Predict the 3D structure of the following.
Amino acid sequence: MFLIILMFILSYLLGSLMPGLWIGQVFYHKDIRDEGSGNIGTTNSFRVLGPVAGVVTLTLDLLKGTAAGLLPLLFHSHINPMLVGIAAIIGHTFSIWLKFKGGKAVATSAGVLLAYNPQFFMLVILIFILILILTSMVSLSAMISFSFAVITSLFYHDFTLTFVAAILTIFVFYRHRSNIKRIKNGTESTVPFGIYAMIRKKNNKK
């Protein structure tokens, strides 16, 4: 029992690390909570700090989820990595370093999935990229790819995978409530590439 509690604590602390915020403060002298969307995740890091900081933030947010998911392997425990990884997702969303505030945990959730099932992770990422190319919206791509993950997980006959994927999908939709409203209103922020962004850019020139 002590080992399980220790893994959950370590997983939470890993998830609580906020690379996007700290990179902005140390290297760019900016607090990304005060600019752009105010979110401390990958998308706002791209928007406020640029592509280099955005890629680094994405990578580190992903890797902390993966590291959390690998804790059972490190400690030679038989507990499911997805269950331990949930603590990292909670840590990212309710970080101890940010007075229990945080981001939307999309990259961290994907990192946990990578630790548990790399093949399934690659499938979900491909769907995410495809939707992003079509819609130019990170938020919509995240919600659709997580929904896809739940449906696809049924074919793996893995109850834990399906259960955790469903919980994460509900959580992702809940954390993207404001994004859903903006998508409905046609005011959601877009990335500067993809089919939708190209169409929008052409229409603005007319």
Q: What stands out?
A: Residues 117-201 form one domain. The chain has a mean pLDDT of 92. Residues 134 and 195 are 5 Å apart (CA to CA).
